Please model this.
Amino acid sequence: MPNALIILVLAAVLSATPAAAADRVKIGFIATFSGPIGVIGQHGLDGFLLGVEHAGGKLGGLTTEVIKEDDQLKPDVGLQVAKKLLERDRVDFVVGTIFSNVMMAIYKPVVDSKTFLISHNAGPSPIAGKQCSPFFFSASWQNDGPHEAMGKHVNDKGLKRVYIMAPNYQAGKDALAGFKRYYKSGEVVGEVYTTINQPDYSAELAQLRAAKPDAAYVFYPGGMGVQFVKQYVQAGLLKDVPLFSAFTIDETNLAAIGDAAVGTFGTAFWNPDLKNPASERFVADFQKKYGYTPSTYSAQAYDAALLIDSAIRGVQGRLEDKDGLRAAFRRADFKSVRGAFRYNTNGFPIQNFYLHEVVKDGAGKLKWANRGVVFTDHGDPYASECPMK
Model:
């Protein structure tokens, strides 16, 4: 047989040989761990590590290494650590990020490298639409979703004049766009964007008071929520202008906000009061392991770990089988804390969104109480712009 023909035959045989199963998997976990927002990153990492533990300590049966990276809430730092994870650490999956401006910085480099990027929080609208990628899946929600749910709730309550506020970055813009998409029966009498981690909102609250709205809707996660709500209460606004939000008041800052949070409402895909076996196991084991109540950030990162576990198992550990991994991710064959859900064509979940209220339990401790479903099987509005089918 001529040498050239032998080479062609060998090449054909090798290309037809299934990829061998790996013996280990490396995960790069990017979040914000610095500053007043750092508590959110820790909630997420704790949830992810509990997910690894619940998967038997090995994702997909493979020895698992999780490499933690702090993006410091700086897109340029996020890009640096993402490149480190890809080029030096040679991770198999990247899990990130908290903030959408950081996600937008790392998104293209990660997916262009044909490394699967699993979001444990951020869901900016551009990557849900025309910039969607077959190497991206969200374990959380597209940014607009929780805010759309609150827009519908406020709309259904018949509140006619609403003042809305958020930080001036992608998630803040998506938040208010989502709220307005379902708030149709009234008037938005003020729409204000503030800087990220702004320490003082007194000028904006004076403007809010002057507008005399029937209610306010805001999105200020983590430490921003603590500052905003405390100043809102100190300004005497809470008794006159009911406050609605998403991710402004949650388990990351509930204790710091205190009794001022009682009676406020939020919306999310999950809350610790949700009744299903997977969620109840997650909450009980999380509290036992870490000594605090998990937040949505913890829950969706926990799901991210189990999603990766299900995908690796779906290809019997063959991490080079990208098409097989993608198909397994789409199946989402695991018990999610949110209950049943399915993936849209753009890699974002189609899922329920719930209303919850801050109350005091029998021991006087602040907690979220589930107040029912706002949306059932809710998909984002950008999937129609995604070229994937």
Observations:
- Residues 47 and 299 are 6 Å apart (CA to CA).
- Residues 5-16 have pLDDT under 50 and may be disordered.
- The chain has two domains: 24-141+275-351, 144-268.
